Amino acid sequence: MALKDQQLVDQDYRYGFRDETANYSFKSRKGIDHEIVEQISQMKNEPQWMRDFRHRSLDIFFAKPMPAWAKNEVLEAINFDDIYYYMRASDREGKTWEEVPEEIKRTFDRLGIPEAERKFLGGVTAQYDSEVVYHSIRKDLEAKGVLFSDMDAGLREHEDIVREHFATVIPPADNKFSALNSAVWSGGSFIWVPPGVHVDIPLQAYFRINAENMGQFERTLIIAEPGSFVHYIEGCTAPTYSSNSLHSAVVELIAKEGAHIRYTTIQNWYKNVYNLVTKRALAQKNAHVEWVDGNIGSKLTMKYPSVYLMGEGARGEVLSIAYASEGQHQDAGAKMVHAAPNTTSIITSKSVSKGGGRTSYRGLVKVYEGCEGVKSNVRCDALLMDPQSRSDTYPTMEVDAKDVRVEHEATVSKVGEEQLFYVMSRGLTEVEATTMIVNGFFEPFVKELPMEYAVELNRLIALEMEGSVG
Amino acid sequence: MAKAFETARAPGAGPSSPALDAAAIEALVAGEPAWLRDIRHGAFSRFEAIAGPTDRTEGWRRLELAHADLTPVTPETSHFTLSVADADRAKGVVATTIAQALASHEPLVREALLHARSGRTVGKYSALAEAVWQGGAFVHVPDGVELTAPITATVRAGTYPRLIVAVGKNSRAAIAEAHHESGRFVSGLSDIIVGDNSHLTYAHIQECGTQTVVFSHQHARVGSGAKLVTLNFGAGGALAKNDVEVELLGRGAESDMLGLVFARGKQQFDYHTLQGHRATDTRSDLLFKSALDDHAHSIYTGVIVIEKGAQRSDAYQANRNLLLAEGARADTEPKLEIEADDVRCTHGATVGPIDADQLFYLASRGMDRETASRLIVEGFFQDVLDKTGDERLTQPLQKTFAPHLEREA
After folding, report:
1. Which of A81, A95, A266, A435 is within CB 3.0–4.6 Å of A31 for a Cys-Cys bond?
2. Shortest Cα distance from B266 to chain A (angstroms)?
3. How far apart are CA A265 and CA A301, in angstroms?
4. Domain residues for B43?
């Protein structure tokens, strides 16, 4: 059955391909040290403060141990000396589609980017390995004063804004991987939304890892000024590799007073990628931050999107799904830190384990002293598809204030016999019925996605469910 | 009717051994069988191997350790007052010291002690207790016996008290273990075996002194078709760290795990629970509730483990915390680790104050705030007591709770 699965994936996994990468215009040597960091900073011609920041971060990375709570032999297997930390595919960014190199265009064609553009999906930042090579912002965004570029350009063109906010949400010392990212970051998105501006169309960036043993350390910073709204979509697909790839992003969101940020991720790295990501948002007074987070791919994902509710009336939401099949461990979760009164949060997590896969929910709800009127609700549901798979739930609630309402609920079960029987009695095969039930299980997540993503996700689930029965 | 029975001092062990080292252990084991000597030395090595806790040690980091003196005290022989109905003694119920039992029921004692720490969380101080315990009590209910009255086992003295409860097959029993120690430090062990198709209700009453550092490790093994109901009542101790572990080892084994914590002042209660499903068709249901006043702090970490192959397991876990004062704190971490697919597993946790609507309702009936609060707290706990399903055990317990309820209101 496992073999059949693999064949299905190989046949139909649309993004499971790779382009030759001999044309890289620059490739650092493998491994990590101060020399490499200096090289990266020089190549990018960065200001001194950023160069110092990178070196300082590298020292922190060297000094920090692996997280002790993870106890993950998979994590220990990462060989940091066998990874390229910086690579550039072409010498400059293409301003128009015609200027984008042919080979990269082919990759994007297969990802459907031009098509997506035709569907006027807004500014597209397409990231090919470490550097952004194609980037367009629709004129109406520019007219509204919205800044949307890759992080490197953001630093060059809007140094003041970047310097004021960069690493204020996730300092390098937060954890070993945020320190690594801080030292070698490259690419990612920079978004600044002026006060009161409502960005109607979701902003998107496509990411790819395209060289063997190639690390991708993008850095995203989104700042929503008071009263503004922005929806950012990050979708990941990665080609097939024979050895492991490391992906370690840092994403910082700042929602100022009354602002609303929604950040949607579909993570579908191929099953050899370590996806060790730090994502955190600050929500100031009456701000609203939503993380919509889908984890389908990768070998190991460790990702706990957080919202620090710093101002009264702030609201945080995480809606996440995880899917783990053979050889995969999705260690995902969410954190809500209530540091102001009358803040509210909702975490909804859904996971499916199949074929020996393992899903873990790891979360935290923290209420600081004096934060009265806090309400928090956490709900985790897990489906186990077969006896080989595993599901864990590790929620933590720390409550130091009295007049609060903190609730957590979780269930773990298999697809109900009665549900299956009911659907099959309507003439569906067991596979179709199971797929339908799993799709229904993920429904609250899928319905939050833009149409193209929803369709693609349903297709992926259908594909994954093939061969899960019998 | 009930006759008090006092355990005798364990042979060859004085009340005070000067230093804690391997030689001291060797002095304890004189006259004991070799397997027990091995257990003691193994446990002592574990005690030494585990580093002393700091505020960064997992399992300890949420506790305020600045004022807690964790230096182990000198082992002193523990003595229990055991009360067993005459009628039950006549049915063959044995209640004696562990030393006596080693002579008369060695295989049973061995079974209890060998597997006792097979659980997953043998803390430093439980390992120490396992190395240095002396005295202790042994209660055995033979096959096919239904007790006429609950047995009580009250600790009279000792720093590392140990109680073994071994219930045979097709029996029905209830036992309450009570702690009122008021020294600086106490680390107790309770080992429970429930034979196939038996039913045991076990209550652990902890009303130690408010200056005492209390450790308790309770470990139970439940056979096929058997049911164990445990009730942990916590009101004493400056810092009380408890492990309550139940392993469902036989097909169809069941466990209800209940907990009630009344905390005030700067008391810290830390409960860790394990619902270990190691066989098919097993069922467990856990409900731990705490009411926290003043600057009290409750930490609950519980895990449901469903092992591979333990199909058709059904497990539930709930932790509810009532915060009665501004400075009170509750941390809760209910965990699930599931490796079988045909299971039903749910858990829930809540932290909150007394419901304002409930208070308002009672106030609108002319009740003063204090009485209304007390009634609500009483109600909060009542369903835990009801769930024990054993009135003969809970009736006297209700008397124990009453002053705490008054106090909390």
Report:
1. A81
2. 14
3. 13
4. 2-357
Nearest partner of B113 among B129, B125, B124, B93, judged by Cα = B129
For A299, phi then psi, to 5°, come to -80, -50
Q: Which two tokens stand for residue A81?
A: 């000396």
Question: Residues 6 or more apart from A429 whose CB is under 8 A from it?
Answer: none
Instruction: Check if the beta carbon of residue A398 is closer than 8 Å to that of residue B354.
Output: no
Domain boundaries, chain A: 16-415, 416-470
| B268 in a structural domain | yes
ipTM of the shown complex = 0.76
Cβ–Cβ < 8 Å for A293, A363: no
DSSP one-letter string for B148-196? SS-EEEEEEE-SS-EEEEEE-TT-EEEEEEEE---SSEEEEEEEEEE-T
- Whether B18 maps to a domain, the answer reads yes
Nearest CB to A411; choose among B326, B341, B346: B346
Contacts of B333 in chain A (CB under 8 A): 394-397
Q: Specify the DSSP element, H or E, that contains B345.
A: strand B344-353
Nearest to A141 by CA among A47, A77, A232, A254: A232
Per-residue pLDDT tens digits for A198-252: 998 788 765 444 443 345 788 999 999 999 999 998 865 444 443 457 889 999 9
- State whether residue B295 sits within 8 Å of chain A by CB: no
Interface touch A410/B347, C-beta < 8 Å: yes
Per-residue pLDDT tens over the stretch A334-367: 999 999 999 999 999 999 999 899 999 999 999 9
- CA B405-B406-B407 angle, to 5 degrees, is 90
Give B310 to chain A, closest Cα distance, Å. Answer: 9
Does B370 reside within a domain? no
Q: How many domains does chain B have?
A: 1
- SS3 of residue B220 by DSSP: strand
Buried b (16+ CB within 10 A) or exposed e, A183-217: bbbbbbbbbbbeeebebeebbbbbbbbbbebbbbb
Give the pTM: 0.81
Question: At B373, which helix (H) or strand (E)?
Answer: helix B369-388
**Residues in chain A whose Cβ is within 8 Å of chain B:** 68-69, 369, 382, 384-387, 389-414
CA distance B258 to chain A (A): 18
- Cβ–Cβ < 8 Å for A190, A151: yes
